[in-house]
Amino acid sequence: MLIIFVLFVSEFLYIVNSHKINIISAYYLHQAQGAVKRNNTQQAIDSISRAAQIQMKSTVNKYPDYIPQNYNTSIIIPDTPRELADSYSLYIKSINLFKILQSYGGDIAPVIYTLGVLSYKNGGPQLTPGFFQTAVYLNPDLSHFNIELANYFLTIGDEKACLLALDYCSKFKLPSTHCGQYLDNNYHWKVPDEIGFLANPIEEHYQGN
Q1: How far apart are CA 186 and CA 49, in angstroms?
Q2: What is the pLDDT of residues 39-54, one digit of tens each?
Q3: Helix axes 82-94, 41-62, angle to 10 degrees
């Protein structure tokens, strides 16, 4: 009986350790859901930012030369428009925590990205690049986040920042081709897409992982 108990505990600890990031991400997202129920939008964003900060440690270890170790994921949302707060609240309440627990590495990059899109469309466009940049650093191997960031800068007419975002993207093998296509087409002709135009491909990508 003792041997069986020891084996059970060992297996339980292995599962917990191997899914630690997933559990942490789900915990902070649960905290965020509780915060929006109390109408505390900033606290909800703080909880999500905390999850991103913890998750980013693994990305920094993987790409120490490309992810700033002192990058701060915090987003301050002073004087949040009611429309924006409501959009945050509805989205955060809808997040499937079980799906986060099952995801690879508890990746919440799509959550952060969606908050950036909502910000732009609901009265907080100045918050969008911060959310998009965090999504990029959480998963730089996915071209979509890089392109959405570059597209944001092209939309506001900051061509230099757009080029910097695309240059950063080119340093990663998998997304470089996609980002190169955006450079040749959208940037070259100075024609940005709508903010959030890659939302469906991003969702499909994460559904398949």
Answers
A1: 31
A2: 999 999 999 999 999 9
A3: 60
